[in-house]
C-alpha cells in the first residue's frame, strides 16, 4: 500500500480512509507517551521522530526535556513551531527525512516514534534503525509505537509483526519490551466497519469513545 501524502493531510487537502480528522491528531499528547514519561522512561536529549503536529514533543518540552522534533511535512513543522512559540517552550523542530537525519549524529539519549515506523517500507525501516543508531548515544532508549493490525480503517500502510521488529532492531539494539497496547486515536466507531463480520476482532474504545488502535509498544536500548 502506498503511504499517503502527509503534507496534503496536514494542509487539509485530502483525508485518510475518508475520516474527517487525521487519526493520530488527538489534540493532546498520546496517553502512552504520558505514561512513559510518568514512569521516568525519558531522559536527556529527546528526539521525536515523525512528530507531526507536535503534541508529544510539546508535552515533553513542557516537562523540561531537551526536545527536537522532526517531520517530513513542512506544514506540520510550521504549525508546531508556531504553537511552541505561543506556549513559550524551548523546543526545536526541523523538516527532515527520518531515514537520514543528517547533522544529528550522536546527539540523543531517548527517541520517541509515535506511529511513524509503520509508514515506512521494509527497506526504509532498516535504514531508519541504522539512522537512529547513528544519531543516538550508547545506552540510549528507543520507544516505538506501531500498528499491529487493521480493523476496517486505513490507519497506516503496513501492519507490523513482532518478527519484523525483532529483525529490524536485532543489530545494534537490545529489545527490552515488546507488548500489545491500545493507541488512542481521533477515530470514532462509525469510521470503522459499520457492520463488522463475526470473525472481526473486538474493537476497543477509550472512556471518551475513541478507537484504541492495536499497536506494538517496543522499547529498546542502543548498544
UniProtKB/TrEMBL annotation:
Q: Which residues form a coiled coil?
A: none
Which Pfam families is this protein grouped with? Methyltransf_25
GO terms for biological process, alphabetical: methylation
Please provide the record's keywords in A-Z order.
Answer: Methyltransferase, S-adenosyl-L-methionine, Transferase
Q: Which InterPro entries match?
A: Methyltransf_25, SAM-dependent_MTases_sf
Annotated Methyltransferase domain residues: 46-139
An MF annotation (GO) of this entry? methyltransferase activity
PANTHER family annotated for this entry? METHYLTRANSFERASE, UBIQUINONE BIOSYNTHESIS O-METHYLTRANSFERASE, MITOCHONDRIAL
Its protein name is Methyltransferase domain-containing protein
Question: Upper taxonomic classification of the species?
Answer: Bacteria, Bacillati, Actinomycetota, Actinomycetes, Pseudonocardiales
